[in-house]
Amino acid sequence: MIIEQLSVFLENRSGRLHEVFEILGKNNINVSACSLADTSEFGILRLIPSDPIQAREILKKNLFSVNVSEVISFAAPNSPGALSRTLKILADAGIGVDYLYGFSPGEKSFIVLRPDDAAKAVAEFQKHEMELLSASDLYKF
After folding, report:
1. Whose C-alpha in 20, 21, 108, 125 is 20 to 30 A from the C-alpha of 94?
2. Is 70-138 in CATH node 3.30.2130.10?
3. Is it the case that residue 141 has pLDDT exceeding 80?
4. Residues 6+ apart with CB under 8 A from 59
5. b or e along 30-61 (b: 16 or more beta carbons within 10 Å of the residue's beta carbon)?
6. Angstrom distance (rounded) from CA 122 to CA 18
7. How far is CA 18 from the centre of its chain?
């Protein structure tokens, strides 16, 4: 249930984000989830590609700075307080959260989360019967 996510560091200049997705698309790599955070000088594009190893190599070959990190993804009801209840599971287990991003296409919310201990977070969510997702599950939505 641990998913490999790529973090791509981008200069803040027009077209740089497009370059990443153009390169991935030309190499038949799909992206099931992504998030972009920026500062005045650079951005961090976090993405879950269909083939993380190939995506990393292709982007590095095209002079992008890329790191791989472990994230988990889960589904929760799309209702007030649902995310709070889910995060309480981690807080009660002493697991920190570096960041998260998500979307809610209907009755469920799908969240990608970077915990400070992915294996422990997976175990806690399984103990609480949370619906964990794999990278391939994300392509279904």
Report:
1. 108
2. yes
3. no
4. 6, 8, 20, 23, 24, 66
5. ebbbbbeeeeeeebbbbbbbbbbeebbebbee
6. 33
7. 19
Q: Is the dihedral of CA 134, 138, 139, 141 positive or negative?
A: positive
**Strand pairing class (97-103; 42-49):** unpaired
> Where are the domain boundaries for CATH 3.30.2130.10 in the chain?
2-68, 70-138
The whole model's pTM is what?
A: 0.89
Token pair in block for residue 104: 């809610």
Q: What is the pLDDT of residue 140?
A: 67
What does the pLDDT look like over 55-95, one tens digit per residue?
A: 999 999 999 999 999 999 999 999 999 999 999 999 999 99
User: Topology of domain 2-68, per CATH?
Assistant: VC0802-like (3.30.2130)
